[in-house]
Amino acid sequence: MNLLFRQVVNPNNPKIVAIAKNYVKHVKEMGGDEPPKEPVIFQKPFTSLLYLPDGNGILQLPKHNHEIHHEIELGFMVAKNGKNIQKEKWQEYIGGYFLALDLTDREMQAHFKKQGFPWDLAKGQDNFFPITDLITKDKVKDPNNLQLELKINQKVVQNDSTSSMYYKIPDLLAYISQFMTLRPGDLVLTGTPHGVGPIRAKDNLHGTLKQGDETLAKLNLIVE
Question: What is the pTM of this model?
């Protein structure tokens, strides 16, 4: 147990950092008027991960029957230690990219927001972070010019370019690293475009990340 404890209290252990309200149309669909004056940061636990190396899998919903919403996102992995990162050096800190879903228990989130409490439980439940394998950075010409799309039962529900991100990756790296030292292996989610909505048992989810006509990553999930 002592060895386990020493492993756990290591400040070099990785973390999952996520960004909320980073696409203007999504801000408006959630009832806001404009993007926040600073990036909105939250974290997800590693137990929320559903790693899908080939992009295919089963998504097991929680048993409580709350309304769970999909949020398709571009993510990246941090390559090296970073504190007070300069925006112009952002590429040095990118270890690769991935496609992910940031699932949200919308009922629980609304409940906690109303009370002014944190909403970690709305974002951090088991299987709430389906993620593809890593896309090496050399395959991505410009992460701020990729196309995100999510279909449910063959119907497009989310579709937008990462160029619509209000805070771009250099902005996020600079902002986060003011407060949290970024470590190799940290995972960062960059926010979701508009079109979020509920998923239900028996839904078929198909998400893609494209660079022009090239598909860089895909997610295929059957919801149970």
Answer: 0.95
CA angle 132, 206, 63 (to 5 degrees): 85
Strand partners, 209: 148, 217
Report the distance separating Cα 45 and Cα 73, nearest Å: 17
One-letter amino acid for residue 92 of the chain: E
DSSP strand E in 22-152: where?
40-43, 49-51, 56-59, 68-70, 72-78, 94-101, 104-105, 129-131, 147-152
Report CA-CA distances (Å) from 86 to 42, 125, 173, 204.
22, 34, 8, 41
User: What are the phi and psi torsion angles at 48 (to 5°)?
Assistant: -85, -10
What are the backbone dihedrals phi and psi of residue 78, each rounded to the nearest 5 degrees, phi first? -80, 140
Tell me the pLDDT tens digit for each residue of 152-205. Answer: 999 999 999 999 999 999 999 999 999 999 999 999 999 999 999 999 999 999
Task: Express each pLDDT in 21-71 by its tens digit.
Answer: 999 888 787 777 788 999 999 999 999 999 999 999 999 999 998 999 999
C-alpha to C-alpha distance for 183 and 15, rounded to whole angstroms: 8
